[in-house]
Structure formats: structure tokens, C-alpha cells
Amino acid sequence: MKKIPNRPLVRAALATALLATSLAATSARATTMTVNATTDDLNLGPNGNCTLREAILAANTNAAVDACPAGQPSPTIDLISLPPGTYDLSIAGLYDDANLTGDLDITDDLQIKGSGAPLTIVDAHAVDRVFHIRWNDTTVISDMTIRGGNPLVAHGGGIYVESNGKTALLRDVIRNNVPGLYGEAGGVYQYQAGFLEIRDTTIRDNTASYSPAAAFYGQALLVNSTISGNTAVSISPGYGAFAAISVPYTTGHLTIVHAPFSLTLAQRGYDNDIVVQQGGTATLANTLIDGSCAVFGTGTITSLGGNLESPGTTCPLTQPFDQPGVASAGIGPLSSNFALVETHMPAASSPAYNAADPASCQATDERGVARPQSGACDIGAVERRPGCMAMVANEPGRGLTIDPLGVALPLSPLAVALAFRLRRRRAMTRAGA
């Protein structure tokens, strides 16, 4: 069995994490493509626009497609820029891996960057999953919402990572996706033995019989990310419902740092947030589990400290700063908390508040707020600011939030994005920028 990562190894992994801070390594020769149409067309004619599908094909083939310029060969990482808008997939056709129909197939080194999760949305409308990352070396998908995926008879409703290379999902929202019949993982399905980093990302409201949020068959690192409201429901005849995330086999090795979990079980099955089995491993640090863990066969869960489980004691939390069997996690509902992604804010009375292990504390939280805010880091993905007021009305997406500047705003994505920009502009003005 492979060795479980220890604390120094995990700290080193976090310090050198895939691409969250290292995209500057992209060659100056990289092609930048700005998508100028939200429609899903593929006109080799051309018709003078550059759609998302056409831009990906130009990057895959290193040849101009319609108005999209030619990409550059690997290892150069081309960039596709997505302005605000909803990019709807509409070209039906399953089982195509050439990016001509169905999902968006990525086969060469590429970064796709949106304008923020509330503003840039890629919606598959159930014609297939959303993204299929194949045999390339490096892929980064950031700053967007990925939703509406349904591959009908396959794994991975939102994103299928079928790459032995490096993949990063940064500052994304992955929601309302479902795998196909007998499929696994509504949100993210990692199948090959590559390395996947998920950072500052919310995976919510996805549905599957097994692992509605994510399944990891390779090396994976989940940092400052929220896993919430994903539903395990039997959508395949004869199969029960099972696990928010899973590390199924010996190829799967997952490290989780500063991440809260919650699972909705809609039908018969195992109500577990984290399941590890058959030689897979999961290593937890400063993670909030509002639910339970399960280990089958030779699977292993290891705590590095600073983890909280509520309300049970199913996770092996025996290290310093661990809190098993807490009656209530004391976190608020999923809401914007004045940021571009939705998170669960701990109350001032929460056992997660100021309770994280400092050895694994990250520099910022999922929203980019500095850690710590009041003496010690908080457990989970979001850091509570002293005196902060989060949700006033207890209905995610519909209530009011109080900004530190004293501005009350409806929790619509556009209002949150505009308020975020206003706050940043005021901070720059105060600093004399």
C-alpha cells in the first residue's frame, strides 16, 4: 500500500501546489483567444466569430478556427478568455472526443479563464457533460460556473478529468450536474492517475447515485473549497445512494485542507460525506465535516489535526486540534458572504471559529480573505471577520447580506459582483491608488 502523506509532505504539496500561483510560467509565445459569442457553433467556413467550442478546437489543433487564432503546441499553455455571459452548449452528440459535438473536449495544454463565477456561466443544458479533459499535460479552468451537465450514460456530469497530467480548478462553482445512468460523480470525476487541484471552489447541488460531488481515482488536492448540498439518490435501477465524495481504489489519494462537507441523502444508501475504499487514502487538515466518514476494505483516512466532525465520531480524528463528536458545527447557510463564491460562514459561537491547526493554515480563505482574522484560523473554507454580519434572511440566494462598508445588498450574482468591485475600488481609493 502506498504511504500516507505526512504533515511535512502535505505542507510541501501546498507550497508547490499545481498552478494556483504558477501560471506565470506560461510561455510568452502562448496564444490568447477572447471568445466573442455565447452561442455554441462550429463554423469551419468561417462566419467571423470565435465561440468557446471554436477556441478550444483552435487550441487543440494548433490551427485557426473561424475567427479564433491558432494555438501553440504543448508545453505552451494557451489562454481562452471568457467575458461575462452564459455560454450555452447546444450541439448534441455523445461519444465524440474531438470537440465537435456534445461536451467540450480539451486535448492540448490550455487555460480557460472566466470573469468570475456569478458572471461567466457555461451551461451544457444536458446535451452532455460540460468539460472533458483528455490526454494533455496541463489544464486550468477558473473563475466560472459550470452547470447543466448530463452525459446520459457516462461518468462525470460537470467535468471528466481523463488526463495523466496536471489539472487545476480555481475559483469555480460546479453545480446542478448529474452523471448518466449507472454513472459516478455529478460534479467532478477524476479517472486517470494524474494530479488534480481544486482550490477556492464550491461544488454544490449536484446529484448522483454515487459520489454526487466528486470521485478521485488519482492524486488530488482539495483546498479552501466548499462541498455542499449534493444529493445522493439512486438514479440507476438496483443501486443505492452513496457518499458526497469518494476515493475508490489504490490509485486514489486525496488531501483535503480547509474544506467543509455536507451531503443530502434522498434515498436508501450510506449517508457519508467522505468514503475511502480498496486501498485509497484521504488525508484531512482543518476540514469541517457536517456529516460522517466511512472506510471500506483497505482504505485509509488520516488526520493531520484541526478537523471537526458533527455530530458523530465516524472519522478518525485523534490529532491535536481535532474535534470529533461536536453537537453542532455552528455554520450558516450557503450564501455569498460578500464574495464571488458561496460559502458557509461559521458563527462567532461555532466550535470551528479560531480552532484550526496553525501548522496547516492557509494564507487566505476561499474568498481571498486573509487568514487569520482574529488570533487563529477558522476550520473550513471561510474565515470569519470580527464583527462580520453574514445572512440576515435564512434563504440562500434570496436574503440580505451586510457588507463591511455598511451596504445591504440582495444576494443576486450581479449584485454581489458589483458590490465586490465597489469594495475593491473604495479600498484602492483609501490606499491612494
Describe this structure in a few short sentences:
The protein is mainly beta and 433 residues long.
Can you tell me about this structure?
- The chain is mostly beta strands and 433 residues long.
- Helix content is 9%, strand content 27%.
- It contains 3 helices and 32 strands.
- The protein has helices at residues 7-15, 52-61, 413-430, and strands spanning 32-34, 78-81, 85-88, 104-106, 110-113, 120-123, 131-133, 138-142, 145-147, 159-161, 166-170, 173-175, 188-190, 195-199, 202-204, 207-208, 214-216, 219-223, 226-232, 241-242, 245-247, 253-257, 260-265, 269-270, 274-277, 281-285, 288-289, 293-296, 300-303, 308-309, 400-402, 408-410.
- The strands form 5 sheets. Strands 1-2-5-8-11-14-18-22-26-29 form a 10-stranded parallel sheet, with helices on one face. Strands 3, 6, 9, 12, 15, 16, 19, 23, 27 and 30 form a 10-stranded parallel sheet that branches. Strands 4-7-10-13-17-21-25-28 form an 8-stranded parallel sheet.
- Helix 2 links the parallel strand 1 (32-34) and strand 2 (78-81).
- The radius of gyration is 21 Å and the shape is globular.
- Mean pLDDT is 82; it is low at 1-6 and 390-411.
